[in-house]
Design goal:
By secondary structure, the protein is mainly alpha-helical. The chain has helices at 2-16, 29-55, 62-72, 78-100, 105-111, 133-152, 155-160, 162-183, 189-215, 299-303, 317-320, 337-342, 358-361, 367-374, 392-399, 434-451, 467-473, 484-493, 507-530, 545-554, 576-591, 593-596, 603-610; strands at residues 310-315, 382-384, 412-417, 456-461, 536-541. Bound molecules: 2-acetamido-2-deoxy-beta-D-glucopyranose (6 copies). Residues 1-20 form the signal peptide. GO terms for molecular function: acyloxyacyl hydrolase activity; calcium ion binding.
Length: 616
């Protein structure tokens, strides 16, 4: 069941940006409230269901799950762990008893006022059949008592009382270790129950932490790193010199998104700039620096005197590599949750545009890596300012401001790919219109042009035809046991559907969304053909879905593999992205050969002198 938790988190994080980790954009207070509730419903429902499932297993390992989640919570959110300990301490017995009595998760969530689930249920989930009005009534009554206990804790006052909190936490840890010790002995039924309770406590702790974290919308005072706009949240170890390029692969908007900074104390040193070899330093962090002894020339001017570009990506979750690892189906296999959370469930290190980790995706797994292969001087020269939920309005308002860019930067090969969110709306009438799309694209381009170095290139990509999702997935079985169609309906019912216009049983809606997507694509195409900019040359390419399907057909690969199994919505990072990178690259070599530049004839020398160029 853990996957469902993940899916929900993701879907909501992705598309409704309830927890945009530092950048939360929700139009109105009412919408905020509504979405928060729906989000809580899915999370609460799922995690409590997990607890139930585990309680009834022979060897429940909720402790492990909880440990992993709690451990994964970054240090700078630790205050929430304390709050959560307090909550659990106060309400423990009642909550555990409720769970052991098989109350339906949804009812507990509703009664605890953690969520209002609109009465929705996921068909064929493990709890089907257990539900009854009587349960619901009892749950509400008993949980009323829980709430009373929670209120009696007077949390705000307690959290200010450091000493008291520390003592409480200490007690909890001690208790936990006692129970672990008992595990070694022979157990009777009562003992077993006790242990299960402990495990449930641990899980609840994780659950409450996640609820609290997500409810607070991840705007911690000391978050560190960069927010979705790419701006530093506060002075931190993530980007000490505030040049937007982070010095590590940790924290928010870390070096998975942009080439790693090789001097995080000096804002004049970072990827993406012209390197004049000042003081024999590596100014642009491409690993080429110093003076060649024979000629007295800098290595940078000797070896990197071809057009070196950076790769830039404007986009959405599909272009940032949204993904939940399938291994997480099994709680024991969860790993790196901290990294994944801080990367907003995206895997930009593997994405088709700026993916950089060649041991994960191969030397040809992304456009950046292919560019780097041609010209090793491009090492670390990339910026991905896409974010989950990205749509055309975010181009100007969020993503351009997140760029590190002046007219003196390295020219870029850029991609603009908002492939669906503009038509993924609750109502067809809310979809972005062609006029809006045109106006938002043009105003973004005009601002970007002023900031861009001469000789920059930008490929506008069309929207996808999202009907592939329903067509391929609806009658397949989701890992939860329901069909994808059932999952889509549950998501719609509970208000957490990331794309109610495409992920729906209603063919009229799906067709209308695809029609609008096509209309918007045509606007982008026309702009690329008619708008002349000073520093940016524009191009246009349809989203290459048909070519991806051709690839599948040719290689006898079932097309559903192009879609993420967990969410039934995104292109799959471990499969589709690599195909996409290859198709886009081939398109560039045929249609825009001058955009990708010549092969650097000094590549061998660079390798000889600079080895791995400082790594990643
Ligand atoms: C680099 O290219 C420029 C212009 O093409 C040329 O003037 C310069 O001499 C070149 N530098 C080296 C070290 O080859
Ligand atoms: C979890 O890991 C084990 C051991 O590596 C593996 O056998 C199992 O298939 C994994 N579970 C999932 C769901 O991937
Ligand atoms: C790149 O991916 C490999 C393979 O998963 C991993 O071992 C390595 O740590 C990654 N590199 C970095 C710098 O994270
Ligand atoms: C799903 O439906 C399609 C036709 O709409 C059919 O070709 C396919 O075999 C079905 N798949 C499953 C798993 O039932
Ligand atoms: C639930 O399971 C039944 C029987 O396996 C199936 O017919 C039905 O379509 C499923 N419902 C959903 C929403 O997946
Ligand atoms: C399908 O969607 C269209 C457009 O939103 C709507 O007018 C129609 O009533 C819907 N059909 C069903 C069966 O819900």
């Amino acid at each position: 069941m853990c996957i469902l938790a993940m899916i929900m988190m993701i879907l909501v994080i992705s598309y409704h940006q309830v927890a945009g980790f530092g950048n939360v954009k929700i139009s109105s207070e009412a919408a905020d409230k509504l979405r928060a509730n729906n989000f809580d419903c899915t999370i609460c429902n799922v995690l409590l269901t997990m607890v139930e499932n585990e309680i009834h297993k022979e060897n429940p390992r909720l402790d492990l799950f909880a440990e992993k989640i709690c451990d994964a919570i970054p240090e700078h959110y630790s205050k929430y762990k304390l709050v959560c300990d307090l909550l659990v301490k106060g309400a423990l017995d009642v909550i555990v008893n409720m769970l052991l009595k098989d109350y339906p998760a949804t009812e507990i969530c509703v009664a605890m006022k953690f969520a209002s689930c609109n009465g929705c249920r996921l068909d064929n989930s493990t709890l089907t059949g257990k539900y009854s009005v009587e349960y619901a009534e009892n749950a509400k009554r008993e949980l009323g008592e829980v709430l009373a206990q929670l209120n009696a804790l007077q949390l705000p006052a307690l959290t200010k009382n450091k000493e008291m909190m520390n003592q409480l936490v200490k007690d909890m840890v001690t208790a936990k270790f006692e129970k672990l010790a008992q595990k070694e002995n022979n157990k009777d039924a009562a003992q077993l129950q006790k242990e299960k309770k402990a495990q449930v406590v641990a899980l609840l702790r994780a659950w409450i932490v996640s609820l609290v974290l997500l409810k607070k919308k991840m705007a911690p005072a000391k978050a560190g790193g960069l927010n979705v706009r790419g701006q530093p949240v506060v002075p931190t170890a993530g980007d000490d010199d505030h040049d937007l390029f982070p010095g590590s692969h940790m924290l928010l908007r870390n070096a998975d998104w942009r080439g790693m900074d090789c001097d995080d104390k000096n804002p004049g040193i970072k990827p993406g700039i012209y390197d004049n070899n000042q003081n024999n330093r590596d100014m642009n962090c491409n690993g080429v620096y110093g003076t060649e002894p024979k000629t007295g020339e800098s290595y940078e001017s000797l070896y990197c005197n071809v057009t070196t570009r950076q790769v830039i990506m404007f986009g959405d979750s599909a272009s940032s590599g949204f993904h939940v690892p399938p291994e997480w189906l099994d709680v024991d296999n969860m790993s790196d949750l901290g990294f994944v959370l801080e990367d907003e469930f995206d895997w930009p290190q593997k994405c088709w545009s700026t993916g950089w980790n060649s041991s994960l995706i191969g030397d040809d797994g992304s456009v950046y890596l292919r560019m780097r292969q041609r010209n090793l001087c491009m090492h670390r020269q990339y910026q991905n300012v896409g974010h989950n939920g990205g749509k055309i309005e975010n181009f100007l308002s969020d993503q351009i401001p997140g760029l590190s860019m002046t007219p003196n930067s390295l020219p870029y090969l850029g991609f603009l790919a908002y492939i669906g969110n503009d038509v993924c709306k609750d109502e067809l009438s809310e979809m972005t219109t062609t006029d809006q799309y045109y106006e938002r694209l043009i105003s973004g381009l005009n601002v970007l042009d002023k900031r861009s170095p001469p000789n920059s290139k930008l490929l506008l990509m069309g929207l996808v035809d999202g009907r592939i999702l329903f067509n391929q997935m609806h009658n397949r079985t989701h890992p939860l046991g329901c069909t994808y169609e059932g999952l889509y309906n549950f998501l719609s019912c509970s208000g957490a559907n990331p794309c109610p216009t495409w992920l729906t049983s209603n063919a009229t809606r799906r067709n209308a969304a695809s029609q609008r997507a096509q209309d918007l694509s045509m606007v982008a195409k026309k702009v690329s053909e008619t708008v002349k900019l000073q520093n940016i040359e524009l191009g246009y390419m349809d989203f290459p879905l048909d070519k991806m399907l051709d690839y599948c057909a040719k290689n006898n690969i079932p097309p559903y593999l192009l879609i993420e199994a967990f969410d039934g919505f995104h292109t799959s990072i471990n499969f589709a992205d690599k195909i996409e990178a290859g198709i886009i690259w081939d398109w560039l070599t045929i249609n825009k050969p001058q955009w990708i530049g010549p092969i650097n004839s000094y590549n061998t020398q660079i390798q000889q002198v600079f080895g791995n160029q400082g790594g990643f």
